[in-house]
Amino acid sequence: MLRIEDLWVSIDGKEVLRGINLAIPQGETHILFGKNGSGKSTLLMAIMGFSRYQVTKGRIFFLDQDITHLPTFERARLGLGLSFQRPPTIRGVKAGDILSACARGRVSYQALAAAYDFTRFLDREVNYGFSGGEIKRSELLQLLAQDPKMVLLDEPESGVDLENLEVVGEIIGRLLQKDRRRHHRDKSGLIITHTGFIMDYINADKGYILLEGRLLCSGNPRDILQDIKKFGYEECTRCRR
Amino acid sequence: MSEIKARAEKSKDKKAALGTDLELAEFSRQGGKWEYDPDYGRFSPEERTHLLRAGIELTDVDHAGTFLQADTAVVHCQANQPGVEVLPITEALKTHDWAADLLWRLVAVDADKYTARTELELDNGYFIRALPGALVEQPVESCLYLRTDRFAQHVHNLVVVEPGAQLHIITGCTTHPGVNSGLHVGVSEFYVKAGGRLSFTMIHNWGQDIHVRPRTGVRVEEGGSFVSNYILLRPVKTVQMYPTVTLAGEGAVASLNSIAIAHPGSEIDMGGRVILQAPRTRAEIIARTISTGGASISRGHLVGLEPEIKAHLECRGLILAPTGYIYAVPELEGRVSGVDMSHEAAVGRIAAEEIEYLMARGLDEEEAVSTIVRGFLRVKIEGLPPALEEEIENAIRETGKGM
User: How many CB atoms lie within 10 A of CB B293?
Assistant: First the structure.
């Protein structure tokens, strides 16, 4: 579904990603590990096509279409959906307005909000004064309304209190069709996580470690997480060498 | 000659403290001879559409009262409910001998040439009153209409909300579709008596060569409340206004909200002052301005004269064109200890990350900007008829396009 070939990305002239190769088939969810500043978020932002993230080399294909230079909204309409780690506050724009825009009349965003105890936030300015958990719920509900084929999640558990963790996990499980058998799943995902918590709520197929803009090892995401916990990211670098 | 007339005579050429100075001789004082229109039958569909953009629905249905003045002529005026009086000001001065005493008390007749000329060459205006204890739910709709090109309209309005009464007024000020230039001077004095509540929504929909000089004074007594909403979304040549609200009685409350767009060629000098001169009074001034190439000066002034008052001022501006200009002037003046006053002012542009955030949800750039602009201009406005709300939404949506 998503294929990235030798992707090099710079931010303000500084090289952040250096030759990423990645393929996520339909129905699979891949996990991206890596230290802060390794380029994980940059990869997600570049896939989404934000203007700060300049692709200097390489290609991004989504559903066999070259989207490397497609505007962000067209990528979204093709079926890419991103949950931001730190989304902006837009004063005066209500959470309900954005949910409504995401739903585009296809689903009832009010019903989605009601299902995840978000109704009271619909009339509030999006992300303004929201707690970490409320921000994530808002982000994930937007994705539910958008119903993307490929879900990109940037640290969905960061800043979320215990009370909200379960709801966040449930929504992500729903987005990625956790309850379906593997060959019946048609949604794919690429998830950045530090804690691995989210892996309890989804079926993670493959994991990678991103270090200094390069993808190093790949493999079973649970094994990778165990190794990181045990030996740290530095050991991974040495292992690779 | 009365003292007021004498002061007006002396000030008839006095330059205003703020705003572009206008040469009054360039305007005509010959308004059209418009006949009284009891059922609004004389308005063409085109005019009706134009009036609706200023919030004027041309119906007595669902309105507690209606007043429509074209140039100098009152063409429609009636109260539709008990508890409300709606009269041309010239009639009210004959009916109520006390009404004259309320004129020029909240606005100085010699403030500038615009106030002076209004006294010397009055073209009528409205008198709206809610009787003691009357809770008038439906709005009174008033319209001041420039129907003749180059005409200078001078009106003097008086609103009295008697003790315990409640009144909503929607005023639309606009021009005939064929009118390109002109001047509107509106002197307004509002009295909100003890426990009274007045909401006043003014929608301006002028032409691009129209000059506008409202002069407004408001006095709110004990426990009273005054809410003002001002909306200016379409092009105008110049607007200069600086309404002053005096919270004279304990616990009185005022809220002044304005949203304005300065289009290329427009100069909007818009302010608001609240004087909190009684204990436990509260005030809020909120201004949202956008420049799409025109100049906008956004002023706000809070004056705290008693302890235990609370007031907040918020001026926010967005510049959406390379040549846009926004000048925000928030002023706080505390004269005793124990006042609680604050302000927040910001002038900027739409952040790229906000646009891209919405684009990541599938909105194209135009839709994203329009959504952000609409949100920016969204100030809670109470008591508007649905058609007007829709019109405001449409105008804001149009504004967002192509930015």
Answer: 16
Residue A8, helix vs strand vs coil? strand
- What is the distance between the alpha carbons of residues A148 and B85, in angstroms, rounded to a whole number? 59
Instruction: Give the tens place of pLDDT for each residue, A157-184.
Output: 888 888 788 888 889 988 888 888 878 8
The one-letter amino acid code at B238 reads: T
Nearest-neighbour CA in chain B from A59: distance (Å): 19
In B, residues 70-89, which contact A (CB 8 Å cutoff)? Answer: none
Q: Are B324 and B298 in contact (CB under 8 A)?
A: no
Q: Is B131 on the interface with A (CB under 8 A)?
A: no
Bridge partner residues of B185 (DSSP): B154, B213
Min distance B317 CA to chain A CA atoms (Å): 12
- Chain A contact present for B356, CB below 8 A: yes
Nearest CA to B84 among B156, B166, B157?
A: B166
Residue A16's closest CA among A216, A212, A236? A212
Report pLDDT digits (tens) over A21-47: 999 999 999 999 988 888 999 999 999
Q: Which domains can be identified in chain A, with CATH numbers?
A: 2-240 (3.40.50.300)
Q: Do A71 and B364 touch (CB under 8 A)?
A: yes
How close A151 comes to chain B (CA, Å)? 12
Asked if B365's CB is within 8 angstroms of A97's CB, the reply is no
- With a threshold of 0.90, tell me whether the complex ipTM lies above it: yes
Give the other-Cβ count within 10 Å of A89's Cβ.
Answer: 16
Ramachandran class of B83: left when φ > 0, alpha when ψ lies in -120 to 50, beta otherwise: left
Q: How far is CA A18 from the centre of its chain?
A: 20
CA distance A128 to A97: 14
Q: How many domains does chain B have?
A: 1
Give the DSSP letter string of B12-63: TTPPPSSS----GGGSB-----PPP-TTSTT--HHHHHHHHTTT----STT-
For B366, name the nearest residue in chain A, comparing CA atoms only: A73
Cα distances (Å, whole numbers) of residue A91 to A185, B50, B362: 38, 31, 20
CB < 8 Å to A93, chain B: 371-372, 374-375
Using a CB–CB cut-off of 8 Å, the residues of A that contact B are: 48, 50-52, 71-73, 76-77, 81-82, 84, 87-88, 90-94, 97-98, 101-102, 104, 125, 142, 146
User: Contact B180/B148 with Cβ under 8 angstroms?
Assistant: no
Q: What stretch of H or E contains B344?
A: strand B340-348
Query: What span, in angstroms and rounded, lies between the C-alpha atoms of B149 and B229?
Result: 28
What is the span of the domain harbouring residue B179? 3-400
| Binary contact (A73, B378; C-beta < 8 A) | no
Interface test with B, best of A90, A122, A135 (most B CBs within 10 A): A90
What does the pLDDT look like over A181-210, one tens digit per residue? Answer: 878 889 999 999 888 888 888 888 899 989
